Amino acid sequence: MALMGQNVLVAAPTAVSSKLTAILQSAGYGECRAVQTGGEAMRMVESRCPDVLITSYRLSDMMGIELAKSLSDTLSSIVITNESQRQLMEETPENVIVLSSPISKDAFLSTVSVMLKMNQSMHSLSKRVSELEKALEERKLMDRAKGLLMDQHHMTESQAHRLIQKMSMDRGMRLIDVVKAIMEGNI
């Protein structure tokens, strides 16, 4: 059930972190790091870029939920708490899951697996959004270049488009590079 190549960071007191990392490693999560404080977790996030943080409710230097919230722009987190502590917690960010203990090993591993799969999906979607934004910007630039050619050379949009394609083929340049050169006045 483990997703290979996934890095898990556990921030909890030694006894808890040892137990959690042992469970994760026995399930096939090879890259599990354990720290005892929020400060150590923050440094580890900066240097190791884990895929998910698992933290206890209380750490020696801060509350686990505060750690999870402070890192919520960077990474998804699972906060393990008891039922009474859970009721004290405020709203949590979308990428923070709160689990009440005691929790079964299977439920814990399922939650970690779902969180990692969700992260992969979010990463893929984010990458796709970036690609679409780039394509949209290139399309806008192409439209402006065609408009410029249409104004300067009194041609239709399809003629301007064909001219840009021809310039691209004749010069062995990518279309977007020809468009940028037109906009900069270099062609």
Task: Examine the coordinates and then state which fold CATH places here, giving the name of the CATH topology of the largest domain.
Answer: Rossmann fold
Strand % is 5-15%
Count of DSSP-assigned helices: 7
- Overall pLDDT metric: 89
Describe the structure.
With 187 residues, the chain is α/β, with parallel strands linked by helices. It folds into two domains: 7-103, Rossmann fold (3-Layer(aba) Sandwich); 129-184, Arc Repressor Mutant, subunit A, CATH 1.10.10.10. The chain is 59% helix and 15% strand. The chain has helices at 14-26, 38-48, 64-70, 83-88, 105-153, 157-171, 175-184; strands at 7-11, 31-35, 52-56, 76-82, 96-101. Strands 2-1-3-4-5 form a five-stranded parallel beta sheet, sandwiched between helices. The radius of gyration is 26 Å and the shape is elongated.
Write the layout of secondary structure elements.
Blueprint: E1 7-11, H1 14-26, E2 31-35, H2 38-48, E3 52-56, H3 64-70, E4 76-82, H4 83-88, E5 96-101, H5 105-153, H6 157-171, H7 175-184
Helix pairs in contact: 5-6, 5-7, 6-7
